[in-house]
Amino acid sequence: MAQLYTHPFPVHVQLARHWLMDSLGLDVWTRTPNDMTSILPVIKIGGAPSGSINGYERGVSVDLDLFTKDQGSMDDLSQRVDLAMARLAGNGNAYGYVDDLTGGSFAAVDYGDPELLRYVATYSMTVRPLTSPTQ
């Protein structure tokens, strides 16, 4: 009889959030701040509605929203975020480990405020359990 799997998978939003904060030296928000213009640039992270479980691995995704005032700042921020996320593949932190990572094509999305630029991307990660199963 197969043994039931009991080891939890990482909370992937916190794993990626803390990875970005450590890599970039910037705050990463889980909610959109009320007054963003005084604290730009702003990075917001949230779980994306997707995923899979395949034996020992789980596929999960995060959405990243970037906010800046001008295109030059957005170009710089989106490249820094993309590079930090790319380095997460095959790496991890106290919140878990990421075997593989895909995605990351930022696109402009209107935010309804002409003073702010918003770019959005989805990154998909393959994560493993926090501890190894024992037999």
Computed CA radius of gyration, to the nearest angstrom:
16 Å
Order of helices and strands: HEEEEHEEEE
Task: Detail the poorly predicted runs.
Answer: none
Shape descriptor? elongated
Task: Give a count of the beta strands, DSSP E runs of length 2 or more.
Answer: 8
Strand % is: 25-35%
Number of helices: 2
Percent in helix: 10-25%
Largest sheet: 8 strands, mixed
Structural class: alpha+beta
- How would you state the average pLDDT, rounded? 91
Please tell me about this protein's structure.
With 135 residues, the chain is an alpha+beta fold. The chain has helices at 12-24, 71-88, and strands at 28-29, 42-47, 52-54, 57-68, 91-93, 96-103, 107-108, 117-127. Strands 1, 2, 3, 4, 5, 6, 7 and 8 form an 8-stranded mixed sheet that branches. Helix 1 crosses helix 2. The two termini are 13 Å apart. The mean pLDDT is 91.
Short descriptors:
35% strand; single chain; 23% helix; elongated; 135 residues; eight-stranded mixed beta sheet
Write the layout of secondary structure elements.
Layout: H1 12-24, E1 28-29, E2 42-47, E3 52-54, E4 57-68, H2 71-88, E5 91-93, E6 96-103, E7 107-108, E8 117-127
Parallel strand pairs: 1-2
Antiparallel strand pairs: 2-4, 3-4, 4-8, 5-6, 6-8, 7-8
Helix pairs in contact: 1-2
Quick gist of this model?
The protein is of the alpha+beta class and 135 residues long.
